[in-house]
Amino acid sequence: MFSVIIPLYNKAGHIEKAIRSVLNQSYHEFELIIVNDGSTDNSMEVVNHYLHAQEKEGNSSLLQHVRIINQPNAGVSAARNSGAAAATHNYIAFLDADDWWHKHYLVNLKGLIEDYPEAVLYSTAYYQIKRGNINPAPIGVEPGFKRGYINYCRVYARILCMPVWTSATVIRKKVFEEFRGFNPNLKMGEDFDLWIRVALKYKVALLNEPLAYYNHDQNEDERAVVRDRIYPSSQHVIFNLNYLETEEQNNPDLKELLDALRVYTLRPYYLNKPTRREAQAELAKVNWKMQPFKERFRYKSPVMLAKAQYQAMIWGSEIKQYILRHSGH
Question: Which of 147, 177, 284, 308 pairs with 228 at a CA distance of 20 to 30 A?
């Protein structure tokens, strides 16, 4: 049986679809815990209206397994942790309030758990929704891979597309508790911080069939804020992986993944003068001989030139998105 956790903060325009995708599952052995993390919009009005409508339609038996936790705003990690603490079943499934599931998501996870009992972390492939287009996420599994145990680090490093994405992931409750859940101090990469800790100790199983939907088409202003924000180093996972130092030296797959993530995520920190020194300290750990030529060139270019290249890349991306939005594609 599954405990499904939905952290909710100001997602009035999306939460009904998320809840509906859970209640409409073909497999009904679950409880749904919605953690209202101090929403200031009408998210809870939407939730209560939808649940009331379902009760009037005669779905009260299913609604008996729905619980709502209200708490002051503490962030998505704290909200997920609160839901997990209240969970009564052995497997915890996470679903963010602006994402949703295929109706056979849970029954397929049930089958994956039964077929691969040595794992503690289970995921499916997923779709990415951008500008209304729905495409499978390019997870870096080998061609022809359908289901089974995976080397998390190797698969992730291949394309840097998350093979374990939170809204398409189930974890054993006792293991979640063993690792004390998500780190509430992290605002960026808190999910990776947990999954890498788990994956280095236990087995991970993946079903390479997209059964969850990752919604990138949220409010444009919100996405811009996240994209352009430079988090304090204490809040960004890439600056808080010192606990992996010994493991990194002895695990080539982990080393490859962490180096790729450093190179990929640290450029805005490197180009920003107040955070450059911290970024350089992390980049000094990278084995540059193993990095693509274009990345070595970008980081070895004069800072002013690197800034111009980075800004040109951002402008190019924005122009492309503008054209796509206004061309009907």
Answer: 284
